[in-house]
Amino acid sequence: MDGDAGLERLKNTRYPGRGIVIGQTQDAKHFVQVYWIMGRSATSRNRVFVSEGDWVKTDTVDKSQQVDPLTLYYPVKVWQQAHLVSNGDQTDTIYEALETGGSFESALMGRTFEPDGPNFTPRISGIVNLSCKAHAYQLAILKRVGGDARYCCRQFFNFETAISGVGHCVTTYRDDGSPLPSFEGEPFLVALPGDLNEVAHNFWHLLDAENRVSMLAKFIEKASGRSTLLIVNKFGA
Q1: What are the two backbone dihedrals, phi and then psi, of residue 79, each rounded to the nearest 5 degrees?
Q2: How far apart are CA 236 and CA 231, in angstroms?
Q3: Cβ of 180: how many Cβ atoms within 10 Å?
Q4: Rounded CA gap, 9 and 183, in Å?
Q5: pLDDT tens digits for 124-154?
Q6: β-bridge partners, 145
Q7: DSSP code string of 34-70
Q8: Predicted TM-score of the model (pTM)
Q9: Do residues 35 and 75 make contact, with C-beta atoms less than 8 angstroms apart?
Q10: What is the Cα–Cα distance from 226 to 166, expressed in whole angstroms?
């Protein structure tokens, strides 16, 4: 299945905002997760990804700058065999739901898009749960209905079977704009050729050089559950 058109789509999009990719390596031995952040303002660009074991957090580079609390969160956490990724503090919500017997879906039913008008940025989330037999991975997006901030649409995409060498991508925005236009449609296919370094290098260089800020790529070995993480930061550590 060809995911090259999806890579070309990302390359030709100046500002997709934050993005999540989940899929499977060509040899079918690993699940893949990719997550990136972008920024147009000084505050948004004043960030790096920092690993804390299996978890990753966003942090600031210049501690003297003003901080938007929406920009500081854990995009990656692991609970038992569940590998979580999201673009906000809903990572914590999903983690806490799993701890108490809830699910990916039940956690996000209590959340909505970000309160950052006029953009009202969608919340995007994903999970690979190696203990789940119902599906290989899931993605979700919480966004406004027809651009109206009075209403929230929660879309869940359950992929029963991973496809070797490709993943599915969801982003917060369709492109640049004022206000920023929310993502529309289903997650789109993207190719996942090569090893961890190649995947990270590929996606980093697809993103607009001026607006990209940080990116992580993660391989999750199916047989053992072990994961390997690679972080690329434009600034700082």
Answers
A1: -120, 115
A2: 12
A3: 21
A4: 13
A5: 999 999 999 999 999 999 999 999 999 999 9
A6: 148
A7: EEEEE-SSHHHHSEEEEEETTEEEEEESSTTS---GG
A8: 0.97
A9: yes
A10: 20
